[in-house]
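Hey, resending since the last one bounced:
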Amino acid sequence: MSAAVKLYHCRDARSFRVLWALEELGLPYDLEVMPFPPRFRVDGYKGLNPLGTVPACLVDGVLMTESAAIPHVLATRFGPSDLAVAPDEPGYMAYMNFLLMGEATLTFPQTIHLRYTRFEPPERRNEQAAADYAYWFGSRLRGAESLIEGPYACAGRFTMADISLGYAVMLAQAIGLEEQLTPGMVAYFDALSARDGFRRAKAAQGAGSFTD
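The structure tokens again:
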């Protein structure tokens, strides 16, 4: 089955999870790389995605906006693929847990840190709030590390859960939260970022970052 996927993306933003997933799956897709944040800088974007966030991903013409959910949908809609874990596999519960944890538990505090260090005007920045959320992220990441079952998050293989979790580590490195990463999580991400799918996704989006 051929994929009908269009991804609206900002370099290294949460939508990178989807771009990475597409490259790992080898699916054809259309990519539109936009300046960040698109809700302010791209005319008509909120007409496409009322949330104004990235990703906006059209899968068979249906809009999806959640970066942790879309990779799983791609793997199951256009699979079967070993990048998803099936409900009858022993690692299914851990897979679903890590898939959602990468966004809801780990990326959320990072975005608050970013807000109060970079995105708010200088008079509204808050060093204490930024530091609190940085610590919150690090504490939760250490908890997540204790649940990882081996070289990959779960199921004994690379899955979409690793994309979700790995992106949170990638974002930490990009926004100055390296001190919150344990050596184990650095090594975990180093292995993920050596994958051809990751490298192709980086090349597809071009140079630069949403934090530039």
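The chain has a mean pLDDT of 95.

Sorry for the duplicate.
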